[in-house]
Automatic annotation (TrEMBL):
A molecular function (GO) term: beta-lactamase activity
Full protein name: Peptidase S11 D-alanyl-D-alanine carboxypeptidase A N-terminal domain-containing protein
Binding, substrate: 252
GO biological process, one term: cell wall organization
A Pfam family: Peptidase_S11
Record bears the keyword Isomerase: no
Active site (UniProt): 64, 67, 128
Family from the record: Belongs to the peptidase S11 family.
Stored PANTHER family: BETA-LACTAMASE (PTHR35333), CONSERVED LIPOPROTEIN LPQF-RELATED (PTHR35333:SF5)
Domain Peptidase S11 D-alanyl-D-alanine carboxypeptidase A N-terminal: from-to ranges: 36-281
Provenance organism: Weissella confusa (Lactobacillus confusus)
Entry-linked InterPro entries: Beta-lactam/transpept-like, Beta-lactam_class-A, Peniciliin-bd_prot_C_sf, Peptidase_S11, Peptidase_S11_C_sf, Peptidase_S11_N
Length: 427
């Protein structure tokens, strides 16, 4: 493990030292207890289980982490064939002028050149170029205003309603200058909760995992306005940082003028990929605050939990269903498929199948392990049942083969005993 520098250690100590598991301050397993950071979460990237949470539902300024939404929509457009990575994009004069304003993060562009979609992605994700984000928004939406509406609609489709987008790059409305919303105050900016931003990041890395290759680049080359290329550095200072044996795979930084730093990270704890989010950490003068808070939070989560694998074959409390066409008049069912929970490291937890939903079209004969419906999994440790978008589902399958009742039995049951059966389908 790389040694922790004195500056990093001081930052980690300031961020907080002891984990609190399953406290009343958080519905999740771990309360990070971060100082000088308004919100933070750690989420299992695959299942959406919330492992750590501090003020995860309050909407706060998210700054350039907004670019993760823009990135998702660019990837989606590439997948659908609407645009391509090699496509050359002409820069409108107004966006070219905006990109040359170095009072905000930018990679200067000129209207006299074209830039590929790949180059714009690199510029947006690595040095966090605002001009590149605006040009990609223009490419997909035709205008900034239309693309912002598209972003809001995308968020709503993910269950994130009521978010107002002022910028596809994350700048405050006033910093958008010519492109600002004239009906809004200059200091307003995009706001989301840490949990909502985790939903965005999780969608991005699950649907388009190759985005991590982009996010892991420490430097990228970009065409210089005066000719040749210029080297741009990644704003993510955790790349290559092995503090606490954590290997960071991305993802995006953001700094809001009035509320400090933000960071959305991707790493692994105990072999499982996790998404971390910290919002409004420190201030603009302390660029390391968001990274120190992230390291502290993820380390606490790692120390406080363990991975519990759930085997196939769980039986819900009610594990039989009366079926009109079954020879014995009923069918037994169980879960199929394994699952994984994070649970407290020092606790013994069990898992049960709940909220069973069976098809109304079940008919015999049935083979063993034939799908009948779905159920959700629930841990006996309440704080482990905290999910971004709902508990994981597993299949419910038949325990054994079940022959069909003969014609006389099914006819009699259908005529005189139908009310005795949960499922009355005959074909």
């Amino acid at each position: 493990m790389r040694k922790v520098t004195k500056q990093m250690m001081a930052g980690l100590m300031a961020a907080g030292v002891l984990a609190s598991v399953g406290t009343s301050a958080s519905a999740a397993l771990v309360d990070p207890g971060l100082q000088s950071t308004k919100a933070g979460v750690v989420v299992d990237a695959q299942t959406g289980q919330v492992i750590a949470d501090q003020n995860g539902t309050e909407r706060l300024p998210i700054a350039s982490t907004t670019k993760l939404i823009t990135m998702y929509m660019v990837k989606e457009a590439i997948k659908s064939g609407k645009i391509s990575l090699s496509q050359k994009v002409k820069v409108p004069e107004d966006i070219a002028a905006f990109s040359q304003d170095l009072s905000v993060a930018n990679t200067p562009m000129t209207a006299e050149k074209t830039y590929t979609v790949q180059q714009l992605i690199d510029a947006m994700m690595v040095p966090s170029s605002n001009g590149a984000a605006l040009l990609l928004a223009n490419l997909l939406g035709g205008s900034q205003a239309k693309f912002k509406k598209m972003m809001e609609a995308k968020l709503e489709s993910w269950g994130i309603a009521g978010v107002k987008i002022y910028s596809p790059s994350g700048l405050t409305n006033g910093d958008m200058k010519k492109f600002k919303d004239s009906s809004a105050d200059e200091d307003v900016e995009n706001e989301m909760s840490a949990r909502e931003l985790a939903v965005v990041a999780r969608r991005l890395v699950l649907d388009f995992p190759d985005v991590l290759k982009t996010a892991q680049q420490k430097t990228v080359e970009f065409p210089a306005v005066s000719g040749g290329t210029e080297t741009m550095n990644n704003t993510n200072e955790l790349l290559g940082n092995e503090t606490f044996d954590l290997n960071w795979l991305g993802l995006k930084t953001g700094t809001t003028p009035n509320a400090g730093g933000n960071f959305v990270g991707v790493t692994k704890i105990q072999g499982r990929p996790v998404v971390s989010v910290v919002l409004n950490s420190g201030d603009n003068a302390d660029a390391a605050a968001k990274f120190n808070a992230t390291l502290t939070m993820v380390k606490k989560a790692d120390d406080a939990v363990k991975v519990q694998k759930v085997a196939s074959g769980l039986k819900p409390a009610k594990n039989t269903v009366s079926v009109l066409t079954a020879k014995d008049g009923k069918i037994s069912y169980k879960t199929k498929g394994t699952a994984t929970f994070f649970v407290p490291a020092g606790e013994s937890a069990t898992t049960k199948a709940v909220n069973a939903k069976l098809s109304k079209k079940i008919t015999a004969p049935l083979k063993q392990n034939e799908k009948l419906g779905t159920a959700q999994l629930e841990s006996s440790f309440a704080a482990a049942n905290d999910w971004l978008t709902g508990a994981p589902e597993v299949e419910l399958v038949s325990v054994s083969e079940e022959p069909r009742a003969n014609w006389f039995a099914t006819t009699w049951r259908g005529m005189f005993g139908k009310s005795n059966y949960d499922i009355t389908a005959t074909k």
